Each structure stands twice: as C-alpha cells, then as structure tokens.
Amino acid sequence: MAFKSSRTKNLxxxxxxLVAIAIALGVGLGVGLKKPDGSxxxxxxSSSSSSSNISTATxxxxxxxxxxxxxxxxxxxAPGVGWNSSEPPRTREFSWDVEEVWGSPGGIWKKxxxxxxxxxxxxxxxxxxxxxxxxxxNKLSNATAIHWHGxxxxxxxxxxxxxxxxxxxxxxxxxxxxxxxxxxxxxYWWHGHLETQYTDGLFGGLVLHSPNETAxxxxxxxxxxxxxxxxxxxxxxLMGDLYNTLSTELLWRYNLDGTGMDxxxxxxxxxxxxxxxxxxxxxxxxxxxxxxxxPERRRSLNSNGATxxxxxxxxxxxxxxxxxxxxxxxxxDNFTSxxxxxxxxxxxxxxxxxxxxxxxxxxxxxxxxxxxxVVEADGVSVEPVEVLSLTMGVAQRYSVLVxxxxxxxxxxxxxxxxxxxxxxDNPSLDPLTLGVLYYNGTNSSSLPIYVDSVxxxxxxxxxxxxxxxxxxxxxxxxxxxATKHVEVDFSMQYLADGRHRSFFNNTSWEPLAAGQNSLxxxxxxxxxxxxxxxxxxxxxxxxxxxxxxxDLVINSLDDGTHPFHLHGHTFWIVEExxxxxxxTALNTTNAMRRDTIVIPAYSYVxxxxxxxxxxxxxxxxxxxxxxxxxxxxxxxxxxxxxxxQKLIDDxxxxxxxxxxxxxxxxxxxxxxSESTRRMPRRNLGRVRRS
Length: 690
Ligand SMILES: [Cu+2]
What we know:
Blueprint: H1 9-25, E1 31-32, H2 43-46, H3 54-57, E2 64-65, H4 68-73, E3 91-103, E4 110-115, E5 121-127, E6 131-138, E7 146-149, E8 175-181, E9 186-192, E10 203-209, E11 233-242, H5 247-255, E12 273-276, H6 294-302, E13 309-310, E14 340-344, E15 349-356, E16 363-367, E17 372-377, E18 380-392, E19 397-403, E20 410-417, E21 432-439, E22 460-462, E23 484-495, E24 500-504, H7 518-528, E25 534-535, E26 540-545, E27 549-556, E28 562-566, E29 571-578, E30 593-594, E31 596-599, E32 603-610, E33 615-621, H8 624-627, E34 632-638, H9 641-649, H10 653-668, H11 674-677, E35 686-687
The protein binds copper (II) ion.
The site of copper (II) ion (CU) has 5 residues, from loops.
C-alpha cells in the first residue's frame, strides 16, 4: 500500500548537503531525539499479534559488537577472480553461523543478523552442476531459514529454505545442511526467509557461472575479436535500503491497529538509508522517528528535524535504555562516512552484477560518465542494450558490462532509492548512496567531483523494463502453449477490526503453527487424497496434478508497485497491462523470462511457467512488510505421485526433527517466538480501502 507522494528536490539536496558536511567534518555527529516515556515498551511482547521479538530471548549483554568495517571486511565482492567456469562439477562446502550482533551499518547501532560476523554475508560462487553443501548453524534465539533466490531446486524443494512453506525453520542451536545441485547460471542471492530476518542483514551474493559464460556475451560489438574474453573481471554490487531499527519492531508497528508507522496501519516503514555492498553514508544526524509517540513524531517530521537535541550519553547495549520497542537508538560515535570503492584497469571491460537486496524500495544504478550494457536479468541472458542507468525492484538482478573508456580518474557509482513509494518523509534519509570507481593508477584517496548526468548519443537514459520494452532474451526459447489458467487478485485491506492485511483473493497468508510447514502437511494429504484443494483464510495453494503449462494472471487491486517472486521457476511474461485482465490476446514473441517482476499499480501481468518441478513453491511480494502482512500464496506441483513420494522420501531426518523441536518449544516456552507467530484467526470481513 503506497501513495505516490510528490517530493521536491529540496529535501534531497538538503540531505545531500548534510552528508557532505558530515564527510567534511570527518565525524559521525550524534544528535538525538527525546527519550520516549517508555510506557509502551512492553507492547511488543504482550501483543498476541506480534511477530517474533529477538530481544526477549537473548540477553543483550551477550551480543557482540561488530565494527562497521568488520561487517564487510571479509566479504569478497570480486567474483570470477581466477575462476575456472569450465572445470568438471565438484562439491563446494561452506559452514555458516547465523548470529545476532550489534552493528552500525547506517551509523546507528542496531541488532543485526549476520553470517560468520558479516553482512552482507559470505559470497557463494559456483559452476553449473556443482553441488552446494552449506551447513547452517543457528545461533539466534529464534528459528531461521535460508532461501537460495532463483534456484530451481528440482528434486530438492525441501532445501528451498522458505520457512513454514518448505521447512519448519532451523531451531536455535541446531544445524541444517542445505545440499543441492546448481541448476541455474547467472546472478542470484541468498537471504533469510523467516519473517523479515533478511532486512536485518541476513543476505549475500550467489554467483553461478556457466561453462561458456564469456562467449555468451560476445555480441553487440562488446568484444573486438572472438578470442578476447568479453570482460576482464567481475564486480558484485549488492545494494538497497537500510533500516536502523530492528525489523521485527518495524513490522509490529507497521501492522499496529489504529496507529501504524505514521498514523495509518499499512504505511510501510520509510528506510533510514541506502547501502552499497554493506557500506552506507547513513549518519547520526537524525535518529529514526520510530522512537516517538505519534503526535511527537508528526511534529518532528513537520519541522524537518530542526529541533533535534543532542544524543544523551548512553552505552549501546545498555539493557535499561536500549532494548525493546519503542527503544532508543544510539549513535556509533566512531562512525565515519565512507564509500564502497574498487579499482579497475582502464581500457578494460568488466561485468557488474547488480542485486537489489533491499526490503522495500526500488533502486536505480549508474556510474558517472560510463555506459551500462545490460546483458542479464535475473539469470536470463538478454540482447545487449546500452543505457546510462537502470532501476531494479527488490530482489531483481542485472548484469551490465562497463568499459573503462574515460580519462583515468575516479567516478561516482550511484545507487539511488526510489522514494515515490514512501508514505511519509524520513528527514534522515538520503536516497543516494555513493561508491567510487577508481581507474588503476589513480590516487585512491581522492574523491570524484560531482558531475551532472550527461546524455550520450545512441544510449538510452534508462532501461525500459516494461512489457515490450528493452528486455529481450538472447536465447529465444519457444514458449509452449498454456494448458491451465489461474487468476488471482491481490489487494491490501483493513479488516473489520481495523487491522491491516494483504490478500491474494480472500486469503491472507500466515505461517502455519510452529513445527509445521505446508510442504510436509500438503504432501501427506496429497499422497492420501490427490484431489484435494487448499484454500482457506491463511493458505492459498494452487494444486497441479501432472505437468501443465500454467498461465498465472495476477491482477493488482493496489495503488503501489510490488515486486513478485516465484520460487523454483523462471516464468515467461506473456502479457502486462493496466487494470485487470480481461482476456486480452497474449504475446509470446520474444517473451522475457525472469523470476521477479515488478507489477505496477492497478495493473495485471500474465506469467507462464511449466509445473514440472515437484514441490511447494511460494509466490510472494518481495517487500518484507507486504509478505509478512499476508502477500504470499503457494503452488503445489505434483508432476506425478511418484515424484512427490520421492521428494518426501528424500527429506533429511534432521528436518523432521527440527519440526518436532519447534512444536515442542511452542508448548513449553513462551520465550521462543514461534509461539506468538500465529495470529489468531478472526472474522475476515474486510473493508476496501478507498
Ligand atoms: Cu508488495
């Protein structure tokens, strides 16, 4: 749910100016808001409709503080170095500890969820056909699950990592070994898929190489001779929005009856900053207004942060002042604004792999004075198109080739959050996050000068990602004719009791009770009685027996844009238009394929996919707040009873054990958040928002 708000450039300019001043001063200035009265500090834990609250079950004193540089220090953002993409398939094994720490990626200390002390977490890089074995040990106080975005997981649906859909979650202090074959190539990412955990830092890159990777891009005059590699190296760019408040607190507030974030439940939390490979220019100039009770907050917004008082001296991690919602926020006084940067060789061409790892906002990317040649979208190679910038919805990816053909020097890389979906202003937010591209031999302590965007003849200002636009797959598959048609509407509504929820048709998804997941539950039912349908107040499951070619129509009845992701499949986009679908002829010529599509307001799309991948696959909006308010449905593919039986037989015993542990925890301890995850079923009489 989002209102288009018109914004002046003044806000942006003033925010840029503030950051510039911060950089000039070279310090993170701590200014703060008044301490809240604390009267509602117990609301989160006492609310039956709350999501998990990490802070209740872990003593803050036990959490480590990770410095900003350490968070990203060990990360590899240069995939492909010394990589052999044509070696025989092999097993690649990783051991991950998922843990909660205090971090300050945006200048303010917040609880984060990290892997091996890093956010973004470790890069996984592999070749087609490799076996990925990832031992994930959960050191959180809540369950967790890791999703491998865009992976087909054909035959291993239970390793898709979608909590309450394909697994029960990894209980605290338990380990799950994800073990699957790489069946995709291109640019992907992995992220937590339990509630909004990835919003707090639980994500990383997943780069999957094709044996003939460079050859596939030797077209469109990118390479002068067929023997030249199409690119000299790769750069991974994970970018997106950043929140300085723990996401479970924001989620609780987002859905809160009567008040929401800004007086309106369902108005999404406006981010506090952007990040580029974990580095942000977020600062402590203005603390998030989530500290405030509503009237106070509105005043603070109206005054545009003019009446800020200095941050009182508090120690981060101090239990008495720094725990639960509404909580206080403490500036990391050692925070200095920096830029993610890298140095590349002039005259050469590089493949930049761009990923929107955010939770809400679209992101635009550009490099001053340089042309981006788009060659991949969501793992699908596309005919090269030259642009100056492109915009990614949450969870979308692109590869662009960039030739360093300018004067040696330094150039800004710009990652800009789209603000048009934000329902209220956040004065601390600068939507622009900068990185620096240095030509080899340039003084890497000098920053680029600001330049105006320059038009280049024959180069489009921005990538047209709409239907019939710039994206044409370079591998033109024959699109099979549809054999099955399913139509769903989605909307965001208020229940009769005032709560805000999101719906597919009449279903607002809620995770099954702790210790359950729909794959295991469905499979048992389906094997016993294959003809069942599944559609109730909290689970909308489209069951397909046999292999069909599905046309899925999604009609948006909402005024915002939504990035929808289908697990386990790459779909063809065979139609898109305004309003709801009325049976318009479909266009399959050169239909683009991808796994995440942004659906504009009050529009429809028709997605075609083959239901040959056995298991339970989520389709959901990738905006964290929307999925968690119910915008998720599922496809149960049963190509054959035998394939489903085999899938269930292959489920590792530890996954069943984890379900048992979580259901036992529910009955014995309130400290485990699973016990409060399930919202009480209520009458779903709804009122359409006007
Ligand atoms: Cu959405």
